[in-house]
Design a protein that fits this description.
Blueprint (H helix, E strand, L loop, with lengths): L1 H15 L9 E6 L5 E6 L7 E3 L8
Antiparallel strand pairs: 1-2, 2-3
């Protein structure tokens, strides 16, 4: 259980605190190909876009 909480805390930190990999990313929530909401992130020049994090459990 502690490991799960640790992983959750880490993922929350990655989402809200900039890291070297996530530096200058701008994200919006979009509907992914599987039909679920997920963060779509691009660098500050609008290039190198990719899905970020886990998809939601809510269909869109």
């Amino acid at each position: 259980m502690l490991n799960r909480l640790g992983n959750l805390g880490t993922s929350l930190l990655e989402r809200f605190l900039p890291s070297a990999d996530a530096d200058a990313l701008q994200c919006i929530v979009r509907c992914n190909a599987e039909g679920f909401y997920q963060d779509w992130c691009c660098n500050d020049k609008g290039k190198n876009c990719r899905w970020w994090g886990e998809p939601s459990i809510s269909p869109c």
